[in-house]
Amino acid sequence: MLYLLRLVLISIQFLLASVVNLLICFARPFNPDNSRLSGWMFSVPALKILGLKMCLETEGLKTQPNPFVIVANHQSNWDLFVLGCAVPRRTVSLGKKSLKWIPFFGQIYWLAGNILIDRDNAVKAKAAMLHTTVVMQEHDTSIWVFAEGTRNLGRGMLPFKKGAFQMAINAGVPIVPLCCSNYKKTMRLNRWNSGNIIVKTLAPIPTTGVTLDDMPALMEKCRAQMEACIAELDARAAL
């Protein structure tokens, strides 16, 4: 019963947040700080409705100067509500073009200035990736990427795609790993206290002097750090 009630309430909250976010985005379309405001509107009320206790250990994002590339683990569609509150100022994300057509969310995502990639068109995809360098270097904007490329459904991190690391190297900006504890298999929405979630950022990984030849080692370094951190967060969240 509680589970169904929460689904109804979260649907209503999603619609209300969408209306507010559309007004924000229409008032200042493609402003790179729209993602932070929209993420907050989707996330903070939702966490209370879902009964999830969030612990944010992301102080480093407040002092880290733009631009940088955030590399985060991607668990499920619930990430919108879980990670939305962790989006820092002037940060956009990289997403597939089809997201644009999702009712409400897609229009907000587009108007918030996020970068859409047509994965079925190699030429357009390459142009979009090159555009990220301009966005970071000339517009005081950082980019959030789910490096796995798809949802891992709480089964552990999938192999990383190259895009986030290639962007960071080309722009000469640091990579900031952002780790979220594995909530997908542990949250229980039929309980008043649905579970604990911890989100933590790690120290920036510089890319100065790094070339594309060094990218495999850079990817492995980032992934190893994140795996170790997520294991630690899982143990703490279970207490």
From TrEMBL:
The name on file for this protein is: 1-acyl-sn-glycerol-3-phosphate acyltransferase
Question: Where would I find the Phospholipid/glycerol acyltransferase domain in this sequence?
Answer: 68-183
Tagged with keyword Acyltransferase: yes
GO MF term set: 1-acylglycerol-3-phosphate O-acyltransferase activity
User: Which regions form coiled coils?
Assistant: none
Highest taxon above the source species: Bacteria
Which keywords does the record carry? Acyltransferase, Lipid biosynthesis, Lipid metabolism, Phospholipid biosynthesis, Phospholipid metabolism, Transferase
Pathway where this protein functions: Lipid metabolism; Phospholipid metabolism; CDP-diacylglycerol biosynthesis; CDP-diacylglycerol from sn-glycerol 3-phosphate: step 2/3
EC number(s) given by UniProt? 2.3.1.51
Checking NCBIfam families in the record gives: AGP_acyltrn
**Which reaction is catalysed here?**
a 1-acyl-sn-glycero-3-phosphate + an acyl-CoA = a 1,2-diacyl-sn-glycero-3-phosphate + CoA
| CDD domains referenced in this protein's UniProt entry, alphabetically | LPLAT_AGPAT-like
**Domain-level remarks:** The HXXXXD motif is essential for acyltransferase activity and may constitute the binding site for the phosphate moiety of the glycerol-3-phosphate.
The UniProt entry's sequence similarity note says: Belongs to the 1-acyl-sn-glycerol-3-phosphate acyltransferase family.
Q: Is rRNA processing set as a keyword in this record?
A: no
